[in-house]
Design a protein that fits this description.
By secondary structure, the chain is an alpha+beta fold. Helices cover 30% and strands 31% of the residues. The two termini are 32 Å apart. Keywords: Acyltransferase, Ribonucleoprotein, Ribosomal protein, Transferase.
Length: 279
């Protein structure tokens, strides 16, 4: 079949969305990666190219700034893989220092990237849980009080976040305002986001949620290995289910096996891997 190449434009977003949905159904991943806002950010903000077979978009990629490098992301229709389209996309857009970004890594893509001299610098596993399944009974420690997200609790939430993740690799050390700006958007769920406090008001742990997504769950060092993160996650899942959610997703870095084990124990299953590669 003849492949025709053409530059991408905003007018191609509906076709890109259809291609993204076909890839998601085949590879798994986060449903949000097929949303109009996500695709517009990835494919309409910089130069891009599309491959068409019989007038149908079967592969595409786009480039954008990423510090001193160029970020490149792309999609290849599952029915048209193994024909060199991924390699062609790299030839057209991967110039100079490049960061490749994929939301649903496949073994074939990993092999291609490595063969082209790229090394993986980041990976997160995407987990999903069906909220129609029963939730385990995991009570919160009785000596802790739990509060929802509000302007009055932002400070203790940030304290819980900072203490929970300060010892994690790559911790950004965000100020309260930087973290809130990153965390809170139109899909944030304040009523499902909880912070646990001791009797003297100190932060013990927290969970932050968005629509269909557990953003972060953590316990401060002195409250680890006491079931707090597990209890907060279950409490948040129960609230999300009561609000009408039928499934929930989350990301876990590949260098955090303890967190992955915690969520598998709560009924989550791995559905995809997000990754970044650099040359």
């Amino acid at each position: 079949m003849t492949i025709e190449w053409a530059p991408l434009s905003a007018a191609d977003l509906p076709a890109i969305a259809e291609l993204a949905r076909r890839c998601l159904a085949h590879d798994g991943g986060l449903p949000a990666t097929t949303s109009p806002s996500f695709l517009e950010r990835r494919y309409a903000a910089g130069p891009g190219v599309g491959a068409y077979a019989g007038g149908r978009l079967v592969a595409c990629a786009a480039a954008g700034p990423a510090g001193q490098a160029t970020a490149v992301t792309g999609l290849v229709d599952p029915a048209h893989r193994g024909q060199g389209l991924g390699s062609d996309l790299l030839d057209r857009l991967a110039k100079g220092p490049v960061r490749l970004e994929t939301e649903s890594l496949t073994p074939e893509a990993d092999a291609l990237f490595r063969a082209r001299g790229f090394r993986r610098t980041f990976a997160e596993d995407v987990f999903r849980r069906d909220l129609a399944l029963p939730l385990p009974d995991v009570p919160l420690p009785p000596e802790l009080a739990v509060e929802e997200w509000s302007p009055a609790t932002e400070e203790v939430f940030h304290a819980a976040y900072s203490a929970s993740f300060a010892d994690r690799p790559g911790f950004p050390g965000w100020s309260r305002q930087e973290w809130v700006d990153w965390l809170v958007d139109d899909e944030f769920l304040p009523g499902c986001s909880l912070v646990a406090r001791t009797a003297d008001g100190a932060a013990a742990g927290f969970v932050a949620c968005a629509e269909g997504f557990l953003i972060q769950v953590g316990a401060v060092p002195e409250w680890r290995r006491r079931g707090l993160a597990r209890a907060l996650a279950v409490a948040a899942l129960g609230r999300m289910r009561a609000a009408g959610a039928t499934e929930v997703f989350l990301d876990v870095n590949e260098n955090n096996p303890a967190s992955a084990a915690l969520f598998r124990g709560l009924g989550f299953e791995t559905v995809a891997r997000r990754a970044r590669y650099e040359n």
